[in-house]
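hiii, so i know i said id send this last week but things got crazy w the move. better late than never?? heres the sequnce for the chain we talked about at the cafe, plus the structure i predicted for it. fair warning i was half asleep when i ran it
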Amino acid sequence: MAFDGITTKSVLYELQHSIQGGKINKIFEPNKNEVLLGIYSNGKNYALNICIDSNLYRIHLTTNSKPNPLNAPNFCMLLRKHLNGYKIKNISSNDNLERIVKIELEGYNELNDLTTKYLIIELMGKHSNIILLNSKFFIIDSLRHLDTSSNSNRDILPAHEYIYPNNTKNNFYDIKSFDEFYNLILNNNISNLSNFIVNYFIGFSKPFIKNILSKLNISNIEFSKDDIYSLYNYLNKILNNLDSNEVSLIDYSNEKCKKDYVIDLKTKDSDLDINFFIDDFYYTKETNNNFVSYRNNLLKLISHILKKYSLRLESINKKLVECDNKELYKLYGELITANLYKLSKFHNEEKIELENYYDNNSIITIPLDNTISVANNAKKYFKKYNKLKNALEVVTIQKKETEEELQYIESIIYELEYAKNIEEINEIYNEISENPIFKDYIQNNNKPNSKKASNISEPREYHIDGYTVLVGKNNKQNDYLTTKLASKNDIWFHTKDIHGSHVILKNPDSDISTEILVKCAKLAAYYSKARLSTNVPVDYCYVRYVKKPNGSKPGMVIYTNNKTLYVTPSIDI
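okay and structure toks below
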């Protein structure tokens, strides 16, 4: 991320013109890495978001609300005690481009004395922190405690004097002329210009420098004095205009960085362009990160359950193979019983050979347990036959149930893989939380931070040549779409023997064209596990021929009077 020192400086300039002089009236701590300050300034309410996540650290105004815990964390309660009603007297950073923000606050304490306190925000990757200081710069408390025993070079603990962190890099503001800048580069035998500037100076990120080099057509490896002159002037132009409307944020991306932003020369559209650019950027990124994390956690859980049921089916199939031998055990018992009169002379034998009267009296070898009599061997074989016969009935039912469970679990995996947002994941989560297959696992795992939806969301909607086509997003919505929302004369589509969404063509004419049917079938194929395949079979029939069996899993239906189309999946209709 490019939340570097120069971005920090630009954000602060906008904050100075918006919330400086304002009063803190609300304080929240949505999670362990964030603090939100509600501020009333110049007749407007603002929300200042301070985040110290190791990858997403930043400070900016926000318009995006976040859910808060029912019980405020300790640090949040401490900030409310010390800062509620306090006025923001000044917002500043050091003279260099260090990512350290100092907010000076003024207000009245419990004794009604006017006091000054400071909120220090250190935006330093994994070492980021939010620290509350008293007027003498001693620490009242911090969001994260650090001491020298934890490999820190300073103590961040209550009652300790606050010391700014050391930085071995240099301040670009100390460069007084182009000649000084050029000699610096010349004397260091630089092989990579952007790396040198980022490593030598405070506050410049690699994307920021690379963006400038690209705009000025300066090679990162081979560069001239004129190139360095252009670079020096461009850097100074940006630094000298940070507090103007001529500098803002722009999107930045390259082969290694797909989505980022950098400060550049660009006319602002409003006085808070930089703050709200950052707000939108990180809100989108956090939403995507939360979505991916949420989905992956559920996929991991469900994949574990899928493996469990797959092993169960494997065990059942082995049992069925064993049951296939039951008739042989019955035959052994019958042959031994039929020949008992002439087997009394056999003792301690491990096998006997008898004529099989079921097979033209061919000779069959029968294994014996030599620790028991021949008669008891016959009883043992009959007992084994009866046991396997009874087991076959039970195991056959178990196999059918297990295969149905596996199909349902696989349908959930399909839904998760193609879910587009957290709301869709929430619906899937709510569905599986009601199912006995997943119930124990979900109770034993931390429930994702999501609000349980009370209603089923709207299905996807398409319009094909004047007709409305609805596509289910998950099993429960498929059920609702097919059994509740659709009328009996609508046409239902689903991939044949492949997990996918239910698709409904609303209010079709009696002579609906094949072209329309094919387009609907393409949608059904696209919203299925066969999305990347070709020549996908899609069944379709009137909704009146689609039935949901009692007690069946969500999304499971049976249908008749269907026809099949073979199509290539597509939503380009």
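btw The chain is about 40% helix and 20% strand. thought thatd interest u
miss u guys!!
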